[in-house]
Amino acid sequence: EETITCNTGNVAEDFFETIQQILLSERILIDSLPVTVDSKSMEKNKGVNKQGNINYTLTFKFAFDMINSVI
């Protein structure tokens, strides 16, 4: 299985709600390809604790076998 890791870069504290929505989504596409979330949980970071630099990392698995999509 092929995976992809995505970082948010520096974001505000309220971006955590968007991360939660991604974790709860039934359908996620990256570059028009279906993926499933491989990250099991996410800890809410606070800007006070991280000097305002909050970066979330999510790992996804492609929801199909890459070898089957090659013609």
Describe the structure.
- With about 70 residues, the protein is α+β, with helices and mostly antiparallel strands.
- It contains one helix and four strands; from the N terminus they run βαβββ.
- A hairpin with a 2-residue loop joins strand 2 and strand 3 (about 35).
- The protein is elongated.
- It starts with a strand and ends in a 9-residue tail after the last strand.
- The model has no long low-confidence stretch (mean pLDDT about 80).
Q: Ranges with pLDDT <50 over ≥5 residues? A: none
Mean pLDDT: 82
Query: What integer value in Å does the Rg equal?
Result: 14 Å
- Class from helix and strand fractions: alpha+beta
Q: What is the tally of helical segments? A: 1
Total strand segments: 4
Overall spatial form:
elongated
Please provide the ordered H/E string of secondary-structure elements: EHEEE
Which descriptors would you attach to this protein?
alpha+beta, 4-stranded antiparallel β-sheet, 1 helix
Note the topology.
Blueprint: E1 3-7, H1 16-24, E2 28-30, E3 33-37, E4 57-62
Antiparallel strand pairs: 1-4, 2-3, 3-4
Quick take:
13% of the residues lie in helices and 27% in strands. It has 71 residues and is an alpha+beta fold.
